[in-house]
């Protein structure tokens, strides 16, 4: 897997971890991480990108979607080593490992547009309460 723009403020992420925790989020921890996801080459914020923090040792995870400004925030993280994965429709996945201790951010991360074309869908599922058909019939009866 190739590295995608990780030179961007990753120095902030590489803080030595004092201990590995059992859960990614704890109420007695003071660690947090925040940042922004941008589309590389356009510096356009990516809204609704999925940001996931997986504990390296246990695979326990916390995840969130970026807001309309491409921002994310994780509070009350346990100080630990995390595998961080960022995905967004039409973009290549970004994945890296970092130690989080204390307050980390802002992380500015850039996703590259995917070079592959999306797979076309041949079927769709629809759920409706009532559907009226031409001629006055509906799913509830004619």
Structural class: mainly beta
Q: Overall 3D geometry?
A: elongated
**CATH H-level superfamily title:** Immunoglobulins
Give the beta-strand count: 8
The tally of structural domains comes to 1
- Under CATH, the topology can be stated as Immunoglobulin-like
Rg from alpha-carbon coordinates: 20 Å
Helix-strand topology string: EEEEEEEE
What percent of residues adopt helix (DSSP H or I)?
under 10%
Strand and helix layout:
Elements: E1 31-39, E2 44-45, E3 50-55, E4 61-65, E5 71-77, E6 80-87, E7 94-100, E8 103-111
Parallel strand pairs: 1-8
Antiparallel strand pairs: 1-2, 1-5, 3-4, 3-6, 6-7
Key words describing this protein structure:
disordered N terminus, 142 residues, elongated, 8 strands, mainly beta, Immunoglobulin-like
3D structure, described in words:
The chain is mainly beta and 142 residues long. It has one domain: Immunoglobulin-like. The protein is built from no helices and eight strands. Strands 1, 2, 5 and 8 form a four-stranded mixed beta sheet that branches. Strands 4-3-6-7 form a four-stranded antiparallel beta sheet, with no helix packed on it. The relative contact order is 0.27. The N terminus is likely disordered.
């Amino acid at each position: 897997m190739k590295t995608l723009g990780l030179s961007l403020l990753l120095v902030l992420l590489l803080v030595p971890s004092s201990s590995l925790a059992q859960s990614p989020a704890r109420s007695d921890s003071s660690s947090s991480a925040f940042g922004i996801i941008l589309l590389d080459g356009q510096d356009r914020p990516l809204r609704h990108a999925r940001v996931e923090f997986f504990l390296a040792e246990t695979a326990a995870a916390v995840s969130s979607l970026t807001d309309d400004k491409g921002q994310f925030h994780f509070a009350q993280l346990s100080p630990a080593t995390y595998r961080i994965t960022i995905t967004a429709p039409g973009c290549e996945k970004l994945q890296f490992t970092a130690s989080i201790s204390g307050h980390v951010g802002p992380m500015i991360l850039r996703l590259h547009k995917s070079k592959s074309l999306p797979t076309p869908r041949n079927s769709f599922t629809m759920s409706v309460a009532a559907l009226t058909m031409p001629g006055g019939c509906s799913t509830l009866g004619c």
